[in-house]
Design a protein that fits this description.
Blueprint: E1 12-15, H1 17-26, H2 30-37, H3 41-48, H4 55-65, E2 74-77
Antiparallel strand pairs: 1-2
Helix pairs in contact: 2-4
Length: about 80
């Protein structure tokens, strides 16, 4: 008899806590970051709620802050409720 392998889907979510910590460390407000990166208030609200945003937005934030993606985003297992 052969073993049966079952693949599990690995759902991941993005966590922006590193971004908020970086802003605190730099003494920068979310609004200052938003203006420097040229993002909308709607996008900032999505980030604040931990919602998905376009990768190009994350790149613009990194450019404005002079950092890399790993400095502002973590991937975490998604919790299904």
């Amino acid at each position: 008899m052969y073993p049966i392998y079952v693949e599990k889907a690995c759902d991941m979510a993005l966590c922006y806590n590193r971004l908020w910590k970086l802003l605190i460390d730099r003494g920068m407000t979310r609004t200052q970051m938003r203006l420097a990166a040229g993002i909308s208030t709607t996008t900032l609200a999505k980030l604040s709620k931990g919602e998905d945003v376009n990768t190009s937005i994350l790149v613009r934030i990194c450019d404005a802050l002079g950092c890399g993606i790993r400095d502002i985003v973590d991937s975490v297992p998604e919790v299904h409720t």
